[in-house]
Write the structure tokens for this entry.
Amino acid sequence: MFKQLLANEFVFPLLLGFVFGILCRVSLLRTDYRQYPTYPHGKIIHVSLGVIASALGALAIPALLKENYTAVTFLTVAAQQFRDVRNMERTTLSEIDKQELVPRGGPYIEGIAMVFEGRNYLVMFTSLATTTAMILFQWWGGLLMGLIALAISTKLKSGKTLQQIVDVVPAPVRVEGKDLYVGDIYIMNVGLQDSQNVIREQGRGYILVPKDANAKVTISHPGQRQAILHDVATQLGVFTDSGEPSLTPLVKRDLHTGRLGVFLLPQVKDQDRALSVIGAVPILESVFRMPQKSKTAKQEV
Amino acid sequence: MTSQIGQILAVITVAKDSIAGGAPIFVEPTKERMQQTAFTLEKILDAMVHEVSEETLIVVRHQ
């Protein structure tokens, strides 16, 4: 029976595509400062789905060549399946977000969920390309195509970061009576003297200066601002607790120039680290705007 | 960060005459006592204290 299996002309292309698909999913599965996907169960879920995706991708072309046209409809089932992945991630993260000291915010969650769906398609693409190449050319063709597909997937893995569109400048936190400023940007009204003292001691301020009109519109989005606060809070800690609403890190916008005043309460007060953490905040895909591409509004926004 | 609707949960003041309305009003003899009451209320209500004027603080829930 084993011999019969090996005699099938498509066994090796399928296997190679399958292996490369799984390799792709594993290489794209990173647990970083976000502590997401969680280890081990979150990872198990996504590796298993990656295995399914790579099997589906690998099967498509051999199924066509065997004139089994209906088999291709399985791909649509796959697409449906991976949309559910997105829903699953969205639900989980939204539940977690309710209990966060500094929440991620809806758009950040959408971004993460979208990434999980997208990566499964990358896996399908990798295994499909590998299998096809090995059927058309020899094993070396498959291997080469697999490596190229892996490289493409890795390149598509990460998006832009904030430092590409803004300059991050440290600025003093000023508490003038009830008014709290970062540099010249007004942040909020703090009524309790106790909180004002804590903010004077613990507060740190940064100003984000947009590099162009696109950046100005992108960073004005409240979802993007919440993402900055969340990322800094996860990496540098946050000097607050539940029941301390006065000690809330906040980002406010200077309406005249489009700059953002970022008021933080980090536990780690290393300025260089804070600058690099803010610079490395991902630009949320769903928030990214490009008004300069508009035909009607060529002028500065 | 989404659309926030503030709700005034309490008013703490030393100038009794300038305040009236629906929220509970705490009248204190001195500004120090006003700060202490505001501190207590902030912790109890999990809401933020804002200064409207030097004589008056309000406790607001942002959500």
Summary: Residues 162-290 of chain A form one domain. The CA atoms of residues 229 and 249 of chain A lie 7 Å apart. The interface with chain B takes residues 105-106, 177-178, 189-195, 222-223, 225-226, 242-243, 245-246, 248 of chain A (CB under 8 Å).
